[in-house]
Amino acid sequence: MNANKTRAWYLEKTFTALMWLFLAGACLAVIIPLAFMFTASAMPARDILKMPYPWIPDGIYWQNFWNALRGPEGTFIFARNAFNSLLVSGTVAFFTVIFSSLAGYGLAKFKFKGRNLVFMLIMATMMIPFEAIMIPLYMVAMRMGLQDTYAGLILPFLANAFGVFLMRQYLITFPDEILDAARIDGASEPRIFGSIVMPSSGPAIATLAILAFRSQWDSLLWPLLVVQSDEMKTIPLYITKFMAETHSDEGIMMAVAVMASIPMIVLFLTLSKYFVNTEGLTSATKG
Q: Are 105 and 232 in a shared domain?
């Protein structure tokens, strides 16, 4: 009996050690490229090519960031392109959260005929790749006069099936007793949704907001179709043009990548605390 317990103990410890090693390796696989990007952005190109690679730069080579802001043509268009990306990504993330929460709440808490069919149809759209609808969507945008406009960048992505799925699955677990108590107290459905459901859905909303923002921040294919002028281009288009027109300077390219990644890092650090935070739901349940 003791031998079996000892064997089980050793197996558990071995499995735990292997899991820690796997997680450490996964973390290194993520951190090392980021560390290279940030350190390389602070070095001249000649230092980046040294072997072995100097992971600690002697100082910050600000010329990389100046040239990245200046752009290949010296027009300082980076600020305008960054603003475009922030506006498009922020607007899409905001409305994706609103529309997906409304649809998810309706599918999770209201019983009506055909509810499951509607949900399945929405989920079926996730199986259609964007490349399959890209050309028809572009033709519609052209006919509506949305080319080279903010509306053309924003309108096609204000809602998505994954957001509806995420919010529905989260709100299914929301206690029905709280909603019934609010209705008995005379609260309207918009009041219940805005004052009870949304404040208690912090983890799902934060996750959906980050995913929607990141999807548009990294989007290249659709802006490449609908945008022509330099003033309307987004960050991915700026990076593509920068790499195509400038000479091969690795330091400047890394500086551009660092500046392009800062908004995503700030957004993640700001909303990451909501990922595992169930305080809102717990408070609502107690109330």
A: yes
